[in-house]
Amino acid sequence: MDLTAADQVDQKASAAPPQQSHRLMFRLLREYVRPHAGRLLWAALFMAVVAATTGLNAWLLEPAIDKIFVSQEPGMLFLVPLVLVVVACLRGGATYLQSILMHGVGQRIIAETQVRIYRHLIRADLAYLQSIHSGKLLSSFLYDANLLRDAVGRAITGIVKDALTALVLGVVMFVQDWQLALVVVVIFPLVGVLIRKLGKRMRKVSTATQEETGKLASQLSETLDGARLVKAYGMEDGETERIRARIEQRLKEIMRGIRTRSAATPLTEALGGVAVALAIFYGGWRAQTGVLSLGEFMSFLAALLMAYQPLKGLASLNTALQEGLAAAQRIFAILDVRPAIVDALDANALSVTHGGVIFKDVAFSYGENTPALKGIELSVKPGSTVALVGPSGSGKTTLLNLLPRFYDPSRGRIEIDGQDIRAVTMDSLRGSVALVSQDITLFDDTVTANIAYGRAGAGPD
User: Fold this and answer.
1) How far apart are CA 146 and CA 109, in angstroms?
2) Could you report the per-residue pLDDT of 396-411, keeping only the tens digit for each?
3) Domains of the chain (ranges, CATH numbers)
4) CA distance 205 to 322
5) Cα–Cα distance between 376 and 412 in angstroms, integer?
6) In this structure, what are the phi and psi dihedrals at residue 382, rounded to the nearest 5 degrees?
7) Which of 103, 273, 376, 434 has the fewest CB atoms within 10 Å of its CB?
């Protein structure tokens, strides 16, 4: 079975073997994270400040209870509240700065990704661009770029912040009572298993949702472009039902994603409830035996409760990361398609002296089973005017598309003034060919810019 370029891209994007996740993550970090390493390091520093101040808040409960309410030391009545205010200010400032940095990086990633996709597509082979529907490309251009931003700007860095916070709070728990901490942390591996399972499911759902988004965009583009034909045959209701079915299918995938994301919070809450119950039971027993003070237990309990907030965050952020990895895989599938029509390594600039054009035994096929031209022999003398006449589909447009190398012939050669066009640079070749298309295209620019299109710096004359 023959596959078009679009089929190859779709297969490459939809296949998501788990063993490729690490390579995909490494490429994502190399191509999208490393260029912003400076800002990300500053953001990580502020995240560390947020994590440290969160743990300090939990630890300060011990002196607040034991020194102020139990021992009733006058000096602590002013010192502890003052320290809490300073810690709160530090935490608020660090949170603000890391948020600004990460949003800036996220928006920059969107812009750079979209420019990169566009630059790649506009330089791609015409055969590739015509084999894949523009709706799918637009979907990747707009939708996947945003998911990639969330993966880098929110998920990866958010995971770092929440992991640091959970680590610091875990240290506080072990400092207060390591035996009680050991009883509680048995729940943590279960949270890790939950995060992993939800992440895998979210990756699949995200891929299916994007596929449906691309199909919807393609269908919308087709019907709106062909609105005259739809009206001529009275198919408004029929096309509306087709769109309704496509939207319903996309909604089905979106709801699957919502259910997967929403599952993270209640499951983590349930595990957190078990951990708190264990802490109260075992900690209460130790307090009754006089081993654990009220201040130490309250500090421990506060650290435990605070720790489950970043753990819940890790569960939800991992789903965002998996969506971003799925988007990255689709974007890389587009970016990895290399043009087949390129300059030869030893290509020279085309030198036009007279302008004679010769087609020698030229053949061309759209794919292996769709021949369009065979054994074309044609000589156009310099200065002459030649008209190609024939029925629709006979290959007139195809023949002319070979001259500026929009396509390359499968056999034979084309010469301009004795020079094989595959042996000259495409810039010099296309700079020597004027194209007047039967399809009218006006760009969203001034009339002057449209007239002078392709001639940078052209004057009014």
Assistant:
1) 9
2) 888 988 999 988 998 9
3) 5-335 (1.20.1560.10), 357-451 (3.40.50.300)
4) 10
5) 9
6) -60, 135
7) 434
